[in-house]
Design brief:
Order of helices and strands: H
Radius of gyration: 22 Å
Number of helices: 1
Shape: rod-shaped
Oligomer: single chain
Helix content: 55-70%
Largest sheet: none
Distance between the termini: 56 Å
């Protein structure tokens, strides 16, 4: 009985880790899209140069 419970516990842990990794990939993709949009749509400064769109 204990080995079956251990296998089930391992399956639940791996499923949860797989879901978390997949969610992190989607979050990383969304951040990349926002960064690229900000990079290409940044405004020009008064001197004609292109300024940074972020403040850090």
């Amino acid at each position: 009985m204990v080995p079956i419970l251990l296998v089930l516990l391992l399956a639940v842990i791996l499923f949860g880790a797989g879901f978390a990794v997949k969610a992190l990939w989607w979050i990383a993709l969304a951040v990349l899209v926002v960064w690229l949009l900000g990079f290409f749509m940044r405004s020009t400064s008064a001197s004609g140069g292109r300024g940074r769109w972020y403040k850090w």
